[in-house]
Design brief:
By secondary structure, the chain is mainly beta. The chain contains no helices and four strands.
Length: about 70
């Protein structure tokens, strides 16, 4: 979804935020394997918020399609 808000959390603390591009893609740079307890929160108008854990930071990660449910 173009223009969705994506927040990066470590535990309860937000440590990053970005917006998806015209293809619905996003990225966070300079994350290390040592950063435990990371999760994403995706928000877009007309859709329910989606949260998902990030368990493997062993390199560049493609999360594929993140399905969002319409409100």
């Amino acid at each position: 979804i173009k223009g969705a808000s994506v927040q990066l959390y470590q535990g309860e603390a937000q440590i990053g935020a970005t917006t998806t591009d015209g293809f619905g893609d996003f990225r966070f740079d300079r994350l290390t394997q040592d950063e435990a307890g990371l999760s994403l929160k995706v928000q877009a108008a007309g859709f329910k918020d989606k949260q998902l854990p990030l368990n493997d930071l062993s390199g560049s990660i493609n999360l594929g399609i993140i399905p969002l449910e319409r409100v």
